[in-house]
Amino acid sequence: MTARIGVITFPGTLDDVDAARAVRIAGAEPVPLWHADSELSGVDAVVIPGGFSYGDYLRAGAIAAQAPMMRAVVDAARGGMPVLGICNGFQVLCEAGLLPGALVRNAGLKFICRDQLLRVESTDTVWLSGYRAGQQIVIPMKNAEGRYVALPGDLERLEGEGLVALRYVGETVAGQGNWNGSMNDIAGIRSADGRVLGMMPHPEHAVEELTGPRAGGGVDGLAMFTAAVAALTTAVTA
Amino acid sequence: MARVVVDVVIKPEILDPQGKAILAALGRLGHPGVSSVRQGKHFELDVDDSVSDADLEQLAEQVLANPVIENWTVTRLDTAAGAAGAAGAAADGQPQSSGTTVTP
């Protein structure tokens, strides 16, 4: 049975088409979810894609976090449904309280768009089980508010419990890794149960050779979707 | 009706690159002597008498500010207009805070 993965569209979402495409390439059926609905349509997992939900006029992800669809997603995630938040989706997950911390203006103030080297720190999540711990992957990033910050207690807990999932690393073409100024070079974090992953870079833009990053990665993002689909397909047929 | 001001500012322990950029600009523009700038947000709300102080605290905490990264203050400017729940009127018309700076 084909896994069904929902992709949310808020007003201002940009990357829902690419996210749905990545889901399809990975072998699952993408299911469009509309921000104003509160029905998850029986999906097995949800991707919250990037963009500027509701314009991000107040804070990135702040209004989206309280949308009817997000309330449904928060309930489902607390029940164990896998959720991947990418870029604005990560900001939404933090604003919704599903992940600790927040994403604020880049330390250098500039919007950053580049192919970025990341290190997979934790594979104990549905979304990263297709990688090896310590594996380095190239994933595009594009954001102005991608600096991850957390209160000292939360940061200690993330590090202590191995919940930092992805970290920026420096050995890039440009010779620099942490462009946002994120605390502890954090690019992505996961929930304790491994079901929820939030990350600033965009794996859905690295699933095809034609459009993937040039710096030697190409399809490094695809394993996030294929691993989730494999886990869901096992669960669906079991 | 009452005018309510909510000021939101990023917590002191979190880097504020916009404030730093403004601080640098002040120096360049010939305004010496400023040692720190923190940039924040200033909201002015006109609320009717049904909106209590507790309602204001709730909307500030749940919407206008993110308690993870920001501190905020809620101030009623016109408590003499009979706003519900205000902790006493400011007889001299000066701004009166209905709460203290929230530092969650």
UniProtKB/TrEMBL annotation, chain A:
Pathway: Purine metabolism; IMP biosynthesis via de novo pathway; 5-amino-1-(5-phospho-D-ribosyl)imidazole from N(2)-formyl-N(1)-(5-phospho-D-ribosyl)glycinamide: step 1/2. CDD domains: GATase1_FGAR_AT (cd01740). It is found in: Cytoplasm. It comes from Nakamurella aerolata. SUPFAM superfamilies: Class I glutamine amidotransferase-like (SSF52317). PROSITE patterns: GATASE_TYPE_1. Keywords: ATP-binding, Cytoplasm, Glutamine amidotransferase, Hydrolase, Ligase, Nucleotide-binding, Purine biosynthesis. GO terms for cellular component: cytoplasm. This is Phosphoribosylformylglycinamidine synthase subunit PurQ. The lineage of its organism: Bacteria, Bacillati, Actinomycetota, Actinomycetes, Nakamurellales. GO terms for biological process: 'de novo' IMP biosynthetic process. It comes from the Bacteria. The gene is purQ. GO terms for molecular function: ATP binding; glutaminase activity; phosphoribosylformylglycinamidine synthase activity.
From TrEMBL, chain B:
Its main location: cytoplasm. It catalyses: N(2)-formyl-N(1)-(5-phospho-beta-D-ribosyl)glycinamide + L-glutamine + ATP + H2O = 2-formamido-N(1)-(5-O-phospho-beta-D-ribosyl)acetamidine + L-glutamate + ADP + phosphate + H(+). Its EC number is 6.3.5.3. GO terms for molecular function: ATP binding; phosphoribosylformylglycinamidine synthase activity. Residues 83-104 are annotated as: Disordered. It is an enzyme of class 6 (ligase). GO terms for cellular component: cytoplasm. One of its GO terms (biological process) is 'de novo' IMP biosynthetic process. Pfam families: PurS. It is found in: Cytoplasm. The keyword Nucleus does not apply. Pathway: Purine metabolism; IMP biosynthesis via de novo pathway; 5-amino-1-(5-phospho-D-ribosyl)imidazole from N(2)-formyl-N(1)-(5-phospho-D-ribosyl)glycinamide: step 1/2. Keywords: ATP-binding, Cytoplasm, Ligase, Nucleotide-binding, Purine biosynthesis. Gene3D superfamilies: Phosphoribosylformylglycinamidine synthase subunit PurS. Residues 94-104 have a biased composition (Polar residues). Part of the FGAM synthase complex composed of 1 PurL, 1 PurQ and 2 PurS subunits. Belongs to the PurS family. Part of the phosphoribosylformylglycinamidine synthase complex involved in the purines biosynthetic pathway. Catalyzes the ATP-dependent conversion of formylglycinamide ribonucleotide (FGAR) and glutamine to yield formylglycinamidine ribonucleotide (FGAM) and glutamate. The FGAM synthase complex is composed of three subunits. PurQ produces an ammonia molecule by converting glutamine to glutamate. PurL transfers the ammonia molecule to FGAR to form FGAM in an ATP-dependent manner. This is Phosphoribosylformylglycinamidine synthase subunit PurS. The lineage of its organism: Bacteria, Bacillati, Actinomycetota, Actinomycetes, Nakamurellales. The gene is purS.
